[in-house]
Design goal:
Helix content: 25-40%
Bound molecules: pyridoxal-5'-phosphate
Radius of gyration: 22 Å
Structural class: alpha/beta
Order of helices and strands: HHEHEHEEHEHEEHHHEHEHEHEHH
Strand content: 5-15%
Shape: globular
Number of strands: 11
Oligomer: single chain
Length: 394
């Protein structure tokens, strides 16, 4: 230990503030993959600090410490996927507990809450947390507020500090899924959240090649509960996958910057397209989310959704882009187009989907790090070619 130094977020993607000696691990600059299930003990009652990889593994620990550092938490736990993280988190609640959640959440989270958590006796009330009076929905058995900022896929921006005040007044936990902006642009714990969730599959990993999930907290009691849960349910991230996500994080800063720059360029192009009726991106000045996002985050990210004039056109675009794949997921170096209506949000009850504005005309785009001009040309080709093919879709 050479003494801790104060680091900015770009540097924290590469170094821990209390980094161990450069000469540990034979001087390896890339943290080694400890591909082991178990560990030898020196004698009874003594341990190297590692006993069995379900509990902890050095590679996973290095990754967890990095993510905790990026989110300014005291602990981060790495799971085998974002859903594994959220599933484990639900274990801190008990039958009869009630949560208020945003109505516009990742479809998989809604599926988990409605089908698994509900079966375990946990109750949910969903609402638009960016505009509705959450306080009126809090009951005697309410234990937490669960939000995503911005929301998926409508990109609404909830005021985290405002919701945190409500949570504190009622002694509730505030849980924020921070997948869309990543810790590079937003740190919910600094704004009053108690728990941050990430699908590490997305921006943290960044390469569309590995599933992972995180829970980060700044509360010791929550960390202890979660450590017990990860050890007991066994959904911790494997050593090699931990290494892949750790490697991905090294380029988080430059990926986020480039992807955001591309997103702005694409929004600018979409604004000139008469067939595009609405664009949902918090970086558009004058929109509801813009001021809130500007206040609570360091950027607007690279996720956007847009509504085109017809479902037929939406389907045509998904079929006719040549560069941009039509695929689920987000946050990777490759730009992807998603159709929330039949993909990520297919399991959300129809009336809720419509109420949220997730119609069959909405496309969600995760903007990657390609040349912006190539992405725009690809979108333009798909949109412009529609009139030649329109007959096909009726
Ligand atoms: C993808 C995603 C999840 C689920 O993560 P997986 O790694 O796919 O299990 C949760 N929340 C958000 C916002 C997501 O985008």
């Amino acid at each position: 230990m050479k003494g801790a130094i104060n680091m900015s977020i770009e540097t924290k993607c590469l170094h821990l503030e209390d980094e161990e000696s450069n000469c540990n691990h034979y001087g390896a600059i890339s943290y080694p993959i400890y591909q082991t299930a178990t560990y030898a003990h020196p004698e009874v009652g003594k341990s190297t600090g590692f006993d069995y990889s379900r509990l902890q593994n050095p590679t996973r620990k290095q990754l967890e410490r990095t993510v905790a550092s990026l989110e300014n938490g005291i602990d981060a736990l790495a799971f085998s996927s974002g859903m594994a993280a959220i599933t484990a988190l639900m274990e801190i609640f008990k039958p009869g507990d009630h949560l208020v959640t945003d109505a516009d959440l990742y479809g998989g989270s809604i599926r988990l809450f409605d089908n698994i958590s509900a079966k375990n006796g946990i109750e949910f009330t969903r609402t638009d947390c960016s505009s509705v009076d959450i306080e009126a929905l809090i009951r005697e058995n309410t234990k937490a507020i669960y939000i995503e900022v911005p929301t998926n896929p409508m990109m609404r921006v909830v005021d985290i500090a405002k919701v945190s005040d409500i949570a504190k007044r009622h002694d509730l936990l505030l849980i924020v899924d921070n997948t869309f902006l990543s810790p590079y642009f937003q740190n919910p714990l600094d704004l009053g959240a108690d728990i941050v969730i990430h699908s590490g599959t997305k921006f943290l990993g960044g390469h569309n090649d590995t599933l992972a999930g995180f829970i980060v907290t700044n509360k010791k009691d929550i960390s202890e509960k979660l450590r017990f849960i990860i050890k007991t349910v066994g959904s911790g991230l494997a050593p090699f996958d931990s290494w892949l996500i750790h490697r991905g994080i090294k380029t988080l800063a430059i990926r986020m910057e480039k992807a955001q720059e591309n997103a702005f360029a694409i929004v600018k192009y979409l604004q000139t397209e008469p067939k595009v009726k609405k664009i949902y991106y918090p970086g558009i000045e004058g929109t509801k989310g813009y001021e809130v996002c500007k206040r609570q985050a360091r950027g607007f990210g690279s996720m956007l959704s847009f509504e085109v004039e017809s479902a037929a056109l939406a389907k045509h675009i998904l079929k006719f882009t040549r560069l941009i794949p039509f695929a689920e997921s987000l946050g990777g170096v490759e730009t992807l187009l998603t159709y929330p209506y039949t993909q990520t949000h297919a399991d959300v009850p129809e009336e809720e989907r419509i109420a949220n504005g997730i119609t069959d005309c909405v496309l969600r785009m995760s903007v990657g790090i390609e040349a912006a001009g190539d992405l725009i040309a690809d979108l333009k080709y798909a949109i412009d070619s529609y009139d030649d093919y329109a007959g096909q879709y009726v």
